[in-house]
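Hello forum,

I keep getting stuck at the same step: I have a sequence, I want structure tokens, and every attempt I make locally crashes halfway through. Rather than fight my setup again tonight, could one of you with a working pipeline run this one for me? It's a single chain of 97 residues.
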Amino acid sequence: MFQVKDYCFAREDRIVGVGVLQLANMIEQGSCACWVQLGRRFHIDETGLILLRILSQRQTDEIAREFVRLKSECRYETESTIAASMSNQQLAANRIS
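Reply #2:
Ran it on my machine without issues. Output:
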């Protein structure tokens, strides 16, 4: 999984989107050059929320804090952008595999 961030001087940095690439093909080829659509925020069920609450209590664990922050940030998209993003992600996944 990778993420794209918007680093801004005058305001708080925020995540623009996330995406997923299969590493199996990159290992064989040594590199990967492709267009990847950024997906929407992941849906978190009750178990996921419990895990996020547990991880958020680990004040000295930098990795846990970063994970909770990444999973709880919102990205702003319209309905049409989400639908296009999901269909393009499926096309990209088929091209890569």
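The chain has four helices and two strands. If your local run keeps crashing, start a new thread with the error log.
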